Amino acid sequence: MAQIPSKEQIMEWVADHPDANSKRDIAKAFGIKGAERIELKRLLKELEGEGHLERRRRHYLDAERLPPVTVLELLPPDGSGDLFARPLEWHGDGPMPRIHYVPRDSDPALGRGDRFLGRLVEVQGEDYQYQARLIRRITAAPHRITGIFRKEAEGGRIVPIDKGQDREWRVRPDATLGAQNGELVQAEQAGPKGRLGLPMARIIDRLGDPSAPRAVSLIAIHQHGIPDDFPDAVIAEAEGAKPATMKGREDLRDLPLVTIDPSDARDHDDAVAAFVEEDGGATIWVAIADVAHYVTPGSALDREAWLRGNSTYFPDRVVPMLPEALSADLCSLHEGVDRPVIAVRMRLDAQGNKIGHNFHRGMMNSRASLSYEQAQAAADGKPDAQTEPLMDSVIRPLWHAYGLLKEARARRQPLDLDLPERRIELTPDGRVKSVNFRERFDAHKLIEEFMVLANVAAAEELTRRQRPLLFRVHEEPSLAKIDALREVAQASGFTLAKGQVLHTSHLNRLLAQSEGTDFDELINISTLRSMTQAYYHPENFGHFGLALKSYAHFTSPIRRYSDLIVHRALISGHGWGGGSKGGDGLSPQDLERLSETATHISETERRSMAAERDTTDRYLAAFLADRVGTEMTGRISGVQKFGAFVKLDETGADGLLPIRAIGQEYFHFDPDAQMLVGSDTGLEIGIGQRVTVRLAEAIPMTGGLTLDLLELDGQPLPRGPQKGRRGRSPRPMSTKSRLAEIKRATKRRRKK
């Protein structure tokens, strides 16, 4: 009679024989026959119930291990350019194992999200658990959906929350992942259309209650694929970092450096100081946290920072580029604490021109952590207990230097946009408490001018030393966009000259014409929309908006990978070297993939901007949801053939006036004049006109706002029989139709 194996023996055998692990294989291995198989079956069921084994068809697998052949999904390259994959199925209690994909030269190219059948080999002593080789590619990356799951008798359906999608998806009963009715889920396309002609999807992640606190930003994080959890190796590396020493550093601790940030700032990555010179000029110091000392090329921290590209900011949270142990501690220039920095000393003449600069790798100690409000109050002659002792050594010299920079700026004529920044204040439970516009002080502008000058110095320094770097590039706008801006200006009663090489000074004259008028915000926004999007590139194409020939990002390495590259270039260029793990300048790999890095971080920046914008839209819709039916004022900010967009005065939110909700006649769209023209009355609706509207619908889940037009330029709309395209009265628009129109309209507008 064979001895029945223990549970531990069974688990060990299953792990060692992944290709032969059916009940029959296990019985044969332990010599179990006849009635003894009943006891073996009982043990296997217990192991399955305890989660130690998983039964797939007639085979048992160790739930904490992956089978030698499994279906994988390719992830984006990490900071070193290495490729990793995730298993499509993982049933273990521990974290999902990390799989390093190693392609052969003969393998077809795979992209992010592609599925493939891979052969796995366990590895030891690495920061990953398996190595994978391609057997065959299965499918390209499937379409993904984020939405609300609606449970039904057979499976359910998903209602997308993306304004750009207006079709629902069906989910089979075996593809729900246990999602509950009303739960926020992430799903992917799962085959052809099912019944009712709807496409099929399978749920791959359950995101919880969409109405829960912090769900709004969580939706954007998942919708845009922003990494929000740090791998264990990255956390361990950050928490294991030690404070920098004075080795290889200049002692800058006697400089009167201070940080000036928002009152709720958690990290401080830049500090400033100034000295008044006898000739009326000034010397400015800008000291930036030496992040490169801690985030060295090829480290786990570096790979994760490259992957993220930048930090992403939401009203309720920050998804940081670096773990908190660095971003909020070792790399944060806290008051009264020694911190390593890379600093630039810049000399200004009496007209505010930079006549020299030099860079230093040193150790500083902040005299004070000031808020913008504190610094401004002190400059206005109302210092508090903290700023009173700093008036002569810090505040007055800083404002003297700022006065010089303002003179230089006026001569340079960078684009002078004045766009109020919205501030969404939340209650402790994550609800919108208020929507206001942030006050903007000279203290804000002072820090901006100091940072711009430091960024210019970094670009010039590395160009002079012929060191590779990433420039911040902003090319001039296209003729088509400038023509569109000119039409907006003319519709608002202003002029933008034609037939000359465009300079920022021409745009500034337009902005000056609108300043103080009802069209001020509209012209500022329209000018911003006419601009090309800035990006990163190894070659220098100048910065149109700032009217600068050479510009690079140097001042925020805690939250931008581009700045970290510039810091490494400065370290290499000056031969500073050193660092917590050896060389911390530009590595050969950094140089090899400089173009790839530029493209990647330009894309992650746009991804963050889109996620932040979507989150703001949803918060604004949530704030206004209780005010449906309320009359509001605003201004027409855009016109298309499907309707008009209105920027509301109180919140700055954008709402849609669908074409069928404007007046009681048919409207023609005149694309040249950017107008909607009534077929019966000749009523013209164009950009810049004042309107009174009624909020018809606010949908927090999508961020969509629908409006009804009541008054145009203070006059009620003409009334009469409501006509359709062929003279028939159209049917009232249902809520579902209205929602679909919002989604389609917003999608078209963003494509433009």
From TrEMBL:
SMART domains: RNB, S1
Molecular-function GO terms, alphabetical: exoribonuclease II activity; RNA binding
Location(s), subcellular: Cytoplasm
Ranges for region Disordered: 712-752
Keywords of this entry: Cytoplasm, Exonuclease, Hydrolase, Nuclease, RNA-binding
Protein's GO biological process: mRNA catabolic process
Domain of life from the UniProt record: Bacteria
Homology family: Belongs to the RNR ribonuclease family. RNase R subfamily.
The protein, known as: Ribonuclease R
Species the sequence originates in: Paracoccus haematequi
Taxonomic path: Bacteria, Pseudomonadati, Pseudomonadota, Alphaproteobacteria, Rhodobacterales
Gene: rnr
